[in-house]
Write a structure and sequence with these properties.
Structural class: alpha+beta
CATH superfamily of the largest domain: Reverse transcriptase/Diguanylate cyclase domain
Number of domains: 2
CATH class of the largest domain: Alpha Beta
Cofactor: Mg(2+)
Pfam family, one: GGDEF
Strand order of the largest sheet: 2-1-5-4-3
Organism: Vibrio marinisediminis
Catalytic activity: 2 GTP = 3',3'-c-di-GMP + 2 diphosphate
Strand content: 15-25%
EC number: 2.7.7.65
Order of helices and strands: HEEHHEEEHHEHHEEHEHEH
Helix content: 40-55%
Number of helices: 10
Largest sheet: 5 strands, antiparallel
């Protein structure tokens, strides 16, 4: 068998390998490393500069841990003129006669596809696939975090429950494809009326919820009625409208669940009284009778 030297193994290795000095300046890099990082030339560059700022900080800390002889790995994001991607870095330090002669051998594995799939799964958990607003799960998670914050800062806020009027009839008349388009347009119209700090989620088929931080009942009612007006104006030919119930939170003993229930009762009152407007809840706690008497919208 033909003798194979280190350089042959280094160049033929399917995994990316980069050798740097103790300052992370690249001394050598094999072909696979160039391929993983989508770069023509790596020699003489700083390995840290290839990655984003967060990854750069992690790398500097990472390289210091190597002095203890530990072998570690971390995920780093890189950006080049050719592409953005992720790679998993692992490294080991080879001691020289002095610190300046120390070298670090880095192994690079392309995990860009894995990270993209991970991001897609996160989006499915956090964002509604049709409208792009928060899912019910994530909206409630963020709303409950805001409730915890309220317990410290004591800043009142309001929650809104929104429901497109007679949406089942709309689906039956225009079809589900058109219904999906309507939901997308409705979400877009509503988002345009909200601040970046506001929370907006889809909590049911045609039912949505909004949390307005540091907002009074009066201002919340004005925002809600403005949304009603814009929805009616946008869908004037199809005669699509929205009804909105509002509940405020002023008490630390309150909860997001109770507030949504109160807003839902107010929403039902809107449905019974002509639809296409907003109403503030007049109660602090939703009663059992109100829940049991709720009829089909």
């Amino acid at each position: 068998m033909e003798d194979v030297g280190f350089k042959d193994v280094f160049e033929r290795c399917p995994s990316g390998i980069v050798i740097t000095d103790y300052r992370l300046k690249i001394i050598d890099a094999n072909e696979a490393a160039h391929r993983v990082l989508s770069m023509d030339s790596l020699l003489g560059r700083s390995l840290a500069e290839i990655f984003d700022e967060v990854s750069k900080v992690h790398m500097m800390t990472f390289s210091q841990y190597l002095s203890s002889g530990r072998k570690l790995c971390l995920d780093c994001r890189f950006s080049t003129s050719e592409m953005d991607g992720w790679c998993e870095l692992s490294a080991t330090k080879v001691k020289g006669n002095n610190t300046e002669e120390d070298v670090i051998i880095w192994s690079l594995a392309d995990i860009s596809i894995h990270k993209r799939r991970e991001s897609e799964l996160e989006n499915l958990a956090y964002y509604d696939g049709l409208t792009g607003v928060y899912t019910r799960y994530y909206f409630l998670h963020l709303a409950n975090l805001h409730m915890d914050k309220f317990g410290i800062e004591k800043q009142p806020f309001c929650v809104l429950v929104l429901d497109l009027d007679k949406f089942k009839q709309i689906n039956d008349r225009y079809g589900h494809s058109k219904g999906d388009e309507i939901l997308q347009n409705f979400a877009s119209i509503t988002k345009d009326k909200l601040r970046k700090s506001d929370l907006f989620g889809r909590i049911g088929g045609e039912e949505f919820a909004i949390l307005l931080p540091n907002t009074t009942e009066r201002v919340s009612l004005a925002i809600a009625n403005r949304i009603c007006h814009e929805v009616e104006r946008f869908f004037v030919q199809m005669k699509i409208t929205v009804s909105i119930g509002i509940a405020s939170i002023f008490d630390r003993q309150d909860s997001i669940k109770n507030a949504l229930e109160r807003a839902d009762v107010a929403l039902y009152d809107v449905k019974r009284n002509g639809r296409n407007h907003a109403l503030l809840s007049s109660t602090k706690v939703r009663t059992t009778n109100e829940f049991n008497n709720r009829r089909e919208r």
